[in-house]
Specification:
The protein is α/β, with parallel strands linked by helices. It contains 9 helices and 7 strands, in the order H-H-H-E-H-E-H-E-E-H-E-H-H-H-E-E.
């Protein structure tokens, strides 16, 4: 995650996710819809891994009365989030830190997008449990991150598809390959079945897959 403190990488951040995550902007739209199924019109929403502000902006545009707490450990990414929010910035409190630094809430909904895959399995479970502890009973959590089959042979095939999608989306082939190697060597990847189990172990119910695109999966679950 060191590149999140690199000024040049931060400045280019908005260009990256759509080139690596199929349907990236639609993912934000779906997440907002799923949270709005249970969150009230004036809901308070917790967004973990909010640096960059792209999902915060999408949620703010979708729900003009929602307010947000955005949490992220990278100060430069939080500064970018504030700039990205623009006219919506007054509706968001941005907090440098991790889930343990977030107030108790309770919140009406939560989202954690493209973040949990940076954590070990146990840290994912603990983080999800801490999110749940901050939600109202029955409130939705929407998560999405890198998650694909990890069996021998399958893992390499999906990693190659990850790189191929990036290259097809305009990433230079050598940089797409470098990204593949970085994901393979530095991220604690899980099989989708294990990712679902993490949410259940954290105390969530009604875990349901809503997004699947190449090496990415998304679930909605309820506190």
């Amino acid at each position: 995650m060191e590149h999140f403190s690199d000024p040049q990488a931060v400045a280019r951040y908005a260009e990256g996710p759509p080139r690596f995550v199929p349907g990236y902007h639609h993912l934000h739209r779906m997440a907002a819809i799923l949270m709005a199924e249970r969150a009230p019109a004036n809901g308070r929403v917790l967004v973990l891994g909010a640096g960059g502000g792209l999902e915060l902006k999408a949620f703010a545009e979708a729900q003009p009365q929602w307010t947000f707490l955005g949490v992220d450990p990278a100060p430069a990414m939080l500064q970018l989030a504030e700039a990205t929010l623009g006219e919506h910035a007054a509706r968001a409190t941005l907090l440098e830190g991790y889930i343990d630094d977030a107030p108790a809430g309770p919140f009406d909904a939560a989202a954690c997008l493209l973040t949990l895959h940076f954590m070990s399995r146990e840290e994912r479970r603990r983080t999800a449990a801490e999110i749940r502890r901050r939600l109202k009973p029955g409130a939705p959590l929407v998560v999405a991150h890198s998650s694909f089959p990890q069996a021998k042979g399958e893992r390499d095939r999906w990693l190659s598809r990850y790189a191929a999608f990036a290259a097809a989306s305009g990433v230079e082939p050598d940089k797409a390959q470098a990204a593949r190697e970085a994901v393979a060597s530095t991220i604690d990847l899980l099989d989708p079945r294990d990712d679902e189990a993490v949410l259940r172990e954290a105390g969530f119910s009604g875990v349901s897959l809503f997004f699947a695109a190449f090496t990415w999966r998304g679930w909605v679950a309820y506190a």
